[in-house]
Amino acid sequence: MGKTISMKLLFGIYLLLMAGKVFAFSCNVDGGSSIGAGTTSVYVNLDPVIQPGQNLVVDLSQHISCWNDYGGWYDTDHINLVQGSAFAGSLQSYKGSLYWNNVTYPFPLTTNTNVLDIGDKTPMPLPLKLYITPVGAAGGVVIKAGEVIARIHMYKIATLGSGNPRNFTWNIISNNSVVMPTGGCTVDSRNVNVNLPDFPGSAEIPLGVYCSSEQKLSFYLSGCYH
User: What is the mean pLDDT of the chain?
Assistant: First the structure.
């Protein structure tokens, strides 16, 4: 009787350990500690890139990776991003697009995305990029260091059993202060001081303008006479 109880107990512990392993799914940010669920801050260095029709805000495949702890594609995890994911902070009123697993969606998300399957132990960078849609020619909004610029909600469920569903929220936070281009052009300086010579005369203005496509631009000068 004692042996039977011991064997049942050991078998029960074995099943619990195996169940935990089979249904285990983890992620990390920038190679840090494992994350099993919940809300996580993702700090990114913003270096916006102007492109035709859209401006790249951040490539999150460089920061977030996930994997199946069991491996071998025995109990595949199915991952998708969830409606309600949106820009935040200074970008809250802007629209853009989200690239996920070979498909581009309007952002903020008004529907769930397609499903990404993960069944290997090797950490897989999430195929996720955020873009902002240009409005006008040469606009910009100031992003301060430490500011949350977007929140992305993610859902995971596995194949076997109940699937052990889990929810993740990625708070995307800027590491640096930057002017985020909200137009199809950007300039290397938005306020340039120039000392003008006596009239008549001329002075060079050290200003560079960069556009993703042909644009009609206008400039104005302001100043005072001493």
Answer: 82
Give me the long-range contacts of 18-23 (CB less than 8 A, separation at least 24). Answer: 19/161, 21/69, 21/70, 22/70, 22/74, 22/75, 22/158, 22/160, 22/161, 23/70, 23/75, 23/158, 23/160, 23/161, 23/163, 23/164
**Can you tell me whether residue 68 is helix, strand or coil?**
strand
53-82: average pLDDT: 94
CATH homologous superfamily for the domain 23-185 = Fimbrial-type adhesion domain (2.60.40.1090)
Instruction: With cut-offs at 50, 70 and 90, classify the pLDDT of residue 5.
Output: very low
Spell out the domain ranges in the chain: 23-185
Phi/psi region, residue 136 (left: phi>0; alpha: psi -120 to 50; beta: rest), is left
What sign does the CA torsion over 157, 38, 175, 180 have?
A: positive
Whether residue 127 is preceded by a cis peptide bond, meaning omega within 30 degrees of 0, is no
Angle, vertex CA 23, rays to CA 22 and CA 27, nearest 5: 115
Is the pTM higher than 0.70? The answer reads yes
Cα–Cα distance measured from residue 1 to residue 206, given in angstroms and rounded to the nearest whole number: 90
Q: What is the CA radius of gyration of the chain?
A: 25
